[in-house]
Amino acid sequence: MTSIHLVRDDLRPPGPAPRRHLISIADLTREDVVRLLGTAHVFEGSVTRHVKKLPTLKGYLVVNLFYESSTRTSSSFELAAKRLSADTLTVKSVGSSVDKGESLKDTALTLGAYDPDVIVIRHPQIGAPQLVARETSAHVVNAGDGKHQHPTQALLDLYTIQQHLGHLEGLHVAVVGDVLHSRVARSLLQAFDLVGVRCTLVGPPALLPRELDAEMTSDIDAIRDADVVYVLRMQSERMQAGANYVPSLREYTARWGITPERLRPGQKVMHPGPMNRGVELDQRVADSADSLIEAQVRSGLVVRMAVLYDVLTGGPTGVRALAAAEVA
Amino acid sequence: MEASGKTLLDADALARTLSRIAHEIIEANPSLDEVALVGIQTRGVPLAQRLARLIEERAGRAPELGAVDITFYRDDVRVRGGEAPLHAQPLVRETQLDFPLDGRTVVLVDDVLYTGRTIRAAIEALFDYGRPSRVQLAVIVDRGHRELPIRPDYVGKNLPTARSERIQVQLVEVDEVDRILLVPNPEEGSR
């Protein structure tokens, strides 16, 4: 006779969904991505009207905890929370008790005492968002942890591409530059995989990590096939001294810099910012009509509104149907 | 969509009801130029479209037509620490108000009036787009159980119901059939 082992949890009706965080694109399904992009699209309507605020998250507290410098990510999270009527508290490591040596755990506990609903965190160490998720009862959104993940950037990039090219599936994106130090590239690769975008990594051999499962080449001509050229920033602050990833920035620019001559007409160009004009990206390209860089910043607002709404509510039903209907 | 339930209004009765409401809107608003019909997503939108057509047939001019989605104006979005939301968050649809609201008479159109919370949210949404001079409310069914001081200006049918029952309005545009059903205890014990 086979004995039947009853696992207690199996007998329970499906309980409430686990507390939702957004820590890595790897935690998302394709449906999650479609839902988030669909929600973001609906928010477009509110940010273009005269009264730009929605009452949706009235009474919620969103804490932005930034241990690394950031302009667009921290400002767009703050604005996204405000546009949804949440209260916001922004703590930057400079000028806070972090300066005095307070550990992340203690800072998290301190801020946790205000009972925040969402904590948005950027931290140089991988795993910092998980620590905050463990130590507080807030929903945690990763705004960049070391060179691990930057999920909201990847989502806003998908959104931008979808808005400008009309669809995602079947597109080809070339990601050019310092992939090794880029959390954006890691999140993007996973996101592209979810939605069926082909991706080619292009850059100096020393800056293309072999462990990533992707097409790679050091030949800049490979970008010609792509619908979108996604240019990464040369991250000098993450380069170890004396590591010699590239001989010099000038050499990098000569071989991998994105110039008008290297692009086909109509090829779209993206950059997560902040950009080093004249290093990885030629001035003329950055300011051209095919540059989606400003569109990316605008997308950041609605996508982060969607992320905040989604982690707090589990997301609306039916956005999938809406998104599908729009494509049809 | 399942059809388990008692039919309260069939397609003909629904058509007559809409026709009467259209007539009442014309009577109550001598200057139709200032009137805008705004349907509440989802089923209020096709209802508003039908009313606008009926009004155009009779009065010779079509009122402005819009749609409002109230998802982001709900008073029950809260979920925290894994608690299930009070209700599943509804379909997110788009709000479309392509005309200035200022100075206009807005007739909100919805299928069923119940607690009044949807209407409250819709009014709040409207005022984020402009300042209408008047807001009126047209519903096909008023089923009672109001939780807010809201009353309709145009009612298709008053149908007293038990809270456990549900009124299901099905429209060709969404559900492939025109009828109104009374569904007893739709999801017993699930809430």
SSE inventory with pairings:
The complex is a heterodimer of chains A (328) and B (191).
Chain A: H1 8-11, H2 30-47, E1 61-66, H3 72-83, E2 87-92, H4 104-112, E3 118-123, H5 128-135, E4 139-145, H6 151-165, E5 172-176, H7 183-195, E6 198-202, E7 215-217, E8 228-231, H8 249-256, E9 268-270, H9 283-286, H10 293-313, H11 319-327
Parallel strand pairs in A: 1-2, 1-3, 3-4, 5-6, 5-8, 6-7, 8-9
Helix pairs in contact in A: 2-6, 2-10, 2-11, 3-10, 4-5, 6-7, 6-10
Chain B: E1 6-9, H1 11-28, E2 35-40, H2 44-59, E3 64-68, E4 105-113, H3 117-127, E5 134-142, E6 154-158, E7 166-170, H4 172-175, E8 179-183
Parallel strand pairs in B: 2-3, 2-4, 4-5, 5-6
Antiparallel strand pairs in B: 1-8, 7-8
Helix pairs in contact in B: 1-2
How would you explain this protein's 3D organization?
The complex is a heterodimer of chains A (328) and B (191). With 328 residues, chain A is an alpha/beta fold. Chain A has helices spanning 8-11, 30-47, 72-83, 104-112, 128-135, 151-165, 183-195, 249-256, 283-286, 293-313, 319-327; strands spanning 61-66, 87-92, 118-123, 139-145, 172-176, 198-202, 215-217, 228-231, 268-270. Chain A has two domains: 25-150 and 298-310, 3-Layer(aba) Sandwich (Rossmann fold), CATH 3.40.50.1370; 152-294, Rossmann fold, CATH 3.40.50. Chain A has eleven helices and nine strands. Chain A has a five-stranded parallel sheet, with helices on one face. In chain A, strands 2-1-3-4 form a four-stranded parallel sheet, with helices on both faces. Chain A is globular. Chain B is α/β, with parallel strands linked by helices. Chain B has a single domain (11-72, 93-164), classed as 3-Layer(aba) Sandwich (Rossmann fold). Chain B contains four helices and eight strands. Chain B has helices spanning 11-28, 44-59, 117-127, 172-175, and strands at 6-9, 35-40, 64-68, 105-113, 134-142, 154-158, 166-170, 179-183.
